[in-house]
Design brief:
heterodimer, A: mainly alpha, MetI-like fold, 14 helices, B: alpha+beta, Rossmann fold, OB fold (Dihydrolipoamide Acetyltransferase, E2P), 6-stranded mixed β-sheet, 5-stranded antiparallel β-sheet, about 35% strand, globular
């Protein structure tokens, strides 16, 4: 009786996974089936394609660097201190996760655009944000940051609190404890957040389009270039999509390998 | 001398303690879980600030809430061995020990760490990750790490609890030797009275955030201030040398004289423990009777009433305690100095290999 039950339940689980896997991989497979390796290389030679790829990589790298530098200590604070209003702050920080990208773009315009909340300040500082590469970085940072913050906070929360105490009694101040114990111990969580937020930044479309526009060589990242081609040159759009998938997959894979490697393997308890 | 006074509310209970530990001495705080033992250590280390309190170590004032002094943990020079040891999993054993060593280059730090590990016989594990070490090895690395900064005071939280029962006795003996060497005041907390009796020069029984009674283990067992202390102090601990006897029992020659029998196997240096309520007293010169195989001539040191029971502190010549009813106490001559026979079953003698 039990055996047959396990039998049909096992089959059910397997069927569910098969459906999920097929559905999730089919579009990706289709992109590569429709694009031969030669098309892929050829598409990079097309006007604007390489520029778009370069812009995507540079802007997302800068955005993720900013996110890591500011987000790591912020997440540490949220993970290790208990204070009034902490839950509200955590929710606010995560809010962009559920914000539609178009709303994010509008919000950025309303905040930092020429007639925005802080528009005057931005202008006085002599910085151009709207329709510039800086604007792209800003949009990517806004959209991708919560992914890192969330993972980093969870990573720091999983660190054994007595390690931090032990570090203090061993003569390390709070800053040294953060750098030498908390960050290495939370390593896998931080790297996972890093990969997620970089992936999100690479694929960002809506907020960038609204806040920075789509100008070749200035604000046109790969997703925007794909969209521009889509109506006129479907094959070109497909090839560029394949490039983006390959770059994203390579990124995810190298991060997985990195976090599984020996120097970080030690941090996983 | 380490002096600690602290009063604070911590969650559901109030901590209120005043302790003194002389240089080179070890005070073992023993109590059930939730008694506030660890909180005392955290106050001393500066990881928790009490509402009111004063902590001084030698000349250094680490905490004085009245004068607004609260030295950061990293400046207190406490060697803290945490429960489960809190070794950093991302660092190798030697790197854990070298962690507190600052202002040296890598080679010097490694050399110092190796020397410390060597002192505890684990230099060969210098490059191992903590998760690959056994409980006993972790304990040694943790103690080596705590001593690396030449602490002014040592704090030990359940130092033997992460060890399995086989290595516990060896770990305890080794730790006792280290404590005797350091020359700094040591504050140790444990839920196990036997452990406290073995490692502490003095034992404080703590419950509900207060130290109920403080004294040597023998004093506590002989004259417990309350029924709680009596129950908690439980067994009396004696030391001696065991050898298997022809009768199938283990014969333990007590340090200082006398022989005790146990049904538990053992050989070499041992600690034996007997519950006071297992020990009966008979008039001096009386014949062996009943099933009790232990007949030890002792002298009465003192007699204390605990509820409707009587505790007799005895010299065997090591301190031994018997607990008996009022009635049976009256039948015997229990004036201090009087000779009596302490009897108990060999099965009631628990052995702990040292």
């Amino acid at each position: 009786m039990t055996a047959t039950r396990r039998g049909w339940f096992g089959a059910l689980l397997l069927a569910a996974l098969t459906v999920a896997l097929l559905f999730l991989t089919l579009p990706i497979v289709a992109i590569f089936v429709d694009t031969g390796p030669l098309d892929l290389v050829a598409s990079l030679g097309e006007e604007g394609a390489l520029e778009a790829l370069r812009l995507s990589l540079v802007c997302s790298a800068v955005a993720v660097a900013v996110i890591v530098v500011v987000g790591t200590p912020a997440a540490y604070l949220l993970a290790t201190r208990r204070f009034r209003g902490r839950a509200a702050i955590v929710t606010l920080v995560e809010l962009p996760l559920v914000l539609p990208p178009a709303v994010a773009g509008i919000g950025l315009l309303a905040a930092l655009g020429p007639n925005g909340l802080l528009g005057g300040l931005v202008e006085d500082a002599g910085v151009q944000l709207v329709l510039t590469t800086t604007g792209v970085i800003l949009a990517l940072t806004f959209v991708a940051a919560p992914f890192y913050l969330r993972q980093a906070q969870a990573g720091f929360e999983a660190v054994d609190g007595t390690w931090l105490d032990a570090s203090r009694t061993l003569g390390a101040g709070e800053a040294r404890t953060f750098l030498r114990v908390a960050i290495p111990a939370a390593g896998p969580g931080l790297i996972a957040g890093f990969a997620l937020s970089w992936g999100r930044a690479l694929g960002e479309f809506g907020a960038t389009l609204m806040f920075a526009g789509s100008f070749r060589g200035i604000t046109q990242t790969v997703p925007l270039a794909i969209y521009e081609r889509f109506s006129t040159d479907f094959t070109g759009a497909l090839a560029l999509s394949a490039v983006l998938v390959a770059v994203s997959a390579a990124l995810l894979l190298s991060v997985k390998l990195l976090s599984g490697s020996a120097w970080l393997g030690g941090a996983a308890r | 001398m380490l002096r600690v006074e602290a009063a604070t509310r911590l969650g559901a209970f109030a901590l209120d303690v005043a302790l003194e530990v002389p240089d080179g001495a070890c005070l073992a705080l023993a109590g059930p879980s939730g008694a506030g033992k660890t909180s005392v250590l955290r106050v001393v280390a500066g990881l928790v600030r009490p509402d009111r309190g004063r902590v001084t170590c030698g000349e250094a004032v680490w905490l004085d809430t009245e004068r607004g002094v609260n030295v950061a943990p990293e400046r207190r020079r406490c060697g803290y061995v945490f429960q489960e040891y809190a070794l950093f999993a991302h660092l190798r054993a030697w790197q854990n020990v070298a962690y507190p060593l600052r202002g040296l280059d890598r080679a010097e730090r490694r050399e110092r760490a190796l020397a410390l590990l060597d002192r505890f016989g684990v230099a060969h594990l210098a490059d191992a990750r903590p998760r690959t070490l056994s409980g006993g090895e972790r304990q040694r690395v943790a103690v080596a790490r705590a001593l690396a900064r030449r602490p002014a005071a040592l704090l030990l939280d359940e130092p033997l609890s992460a060890l399995d029962t086989r290595s516990r006795a060896a770990g305890g003996r080794e730790l006792a030797a280290v404590l005797a060497q350091t020359g700094v005041p040591t504050l140790l907390v444990t839920h196990d009275f036997t452990e406290a009796a073995l490692l502490g020069d003095r034992v404080g029984v703590i419950d509900g955030g207060r130290v109920i009674q403080e004294g040597t283990a023998a004093e506590l067992a002989a004259a417990p201030a309350s029924a709680f202390v009596a129950d908690f102090a439980g067994g009396v601990v004696l030391t001696g040398t065991a050898r298997p006897g022809d009768d199938g029992l283990t014969h333990v020659a007590l340090d200082g004289g006398g022989t005790v029998l146990s049904t538990e196997p053992g050989e070499g240096p041992v600690a034996i423990s007997v519950y006071p309520w297992e020990i009966a007293l008979a008039p001096a010169g009386s014949e062996r009777s009943g099933s009790a195989q232990n007949h030890v001539p002792v002298r009465v040191v003192s007699v204390t009433a605990v509820g409707n029971r009587v505790r007799a502190a005895l010299a065997a010549p090591q301190p031994l305690t018997a607990e008996l009813s009022d009635a049976s106490a009256q039948d015997l001559d229990l004036t201090p100095g009087a000779p009596v026979i302490a009897t108990w079953k060999a099965a009631a003698t628990r052995l702990l290999r040292l």
